[in-house]
From TrEMBL:
It comes from Strongylus vulgaris (Blood worm). Residues 7-49, 60-102 form the ShKT domain. Gene3D superfamilies: 1.10.10.1940, ShTK domain-like. Keywords: Disulfide bond, Signal. This is ShKT domain-containing protein. The keyword Isomerase does not apply. It comes from the Eukaryota.
Length: 102
């Protein structure tokens, strides 16, 4: 898998399935929160560094959650990780379950 083809994304809140990064953008350059924001909100904080992956070194490896349930359905879909048709989608949405994290 070429992780450079995955989009750089902000993580989503596990309960809501929606990122709260835009509302917290003011913390991007706060010395106390800078590292956390770079890991969890790289897109909002402009920390993608030209790369497009969200699961590389220094990033939090986490599966996305279903927006309606607030829970990831990746474990139920693990069989799709190596399916050529779904590999790209699974690497973006289920990197932890699929073992794509660096």
């Amino acid at each position: 898998m070429n992780s450079a083809t995955s989009p750089c994304r902000d993580l989503v809140h596990p309960r809501t399935g929606v990122s709260d990064c835009p509302q917290r953008k003011y913390l991007c350059e706060n010395p106390i929160y800078r590292q956390l924001m770079a890991e969890q909100c790289p897109l909002t904080c402009n920390k993608c560094n030209g790369a497009t992956n969200n699961v590389g070194p220094g990033r939090v490896c986490q599966d996305l959650v279903h927006p309606r349930t607030g829970v990831s359905d990746c474990p139920q879909r693990i069989g799709l990780c190596q399916n050529a048709i779904y590999r790209q989608l699974m690497s973006e949405q289920c990197p932890k379950t699929c073992g794509y994290c660096v």
